[in-house]
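Write out the bound-state structure for zinc ion.
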Amino acid sequence: MDPWKFVTHDQFPAIGHNLKLKVCPFFRRVGTLSLHGYLRGQDEKHHPSVRARRIFCSDRTRRPGCGRTFSLFLSHCLVGLKVGTAVAWAFLSGILAGLSIEKAVYAVAAQHDLSLSTFWRLWQKLKGAQAAIRTVLSRECSPTSGPLRPP
Ligand SMILES: [Zn+2]
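---
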């Protein structure tokens, strides 16, 4: 996992502690990063929540940074989606248990008061990310020996 993309809840408050000792992922220079606010959104229950911490590579007042910002997301967030990893996992578990995509969507959407289009967007993102997911999985574990079952 990219250390500059996701952090856990435990790591989140300590992001700024040694930020000046970290390397900018774009500029590859140390000592230029600073905290730059929060990325906020709504969770699955439509409550406002913090989704990420913004980091700024400072180029102000003759500082040598590149001026770019990036986000450190909480690890339970899915970038670009309202649903978190727990709801996404419930949806995928339904599919793995043998439900059709439609039935898995209805089962999870009814439990969490979410629109059906949310899960279709999640499904389309998963389909579009197959190459990246399979590349990571091939590095992390061996292929399964069981029969392949397309969803
Ligand atoms: Zn930079």
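---
Residues 116-128 form the longest helix (13 residues).
The chain has a mean pLDDT of 84.
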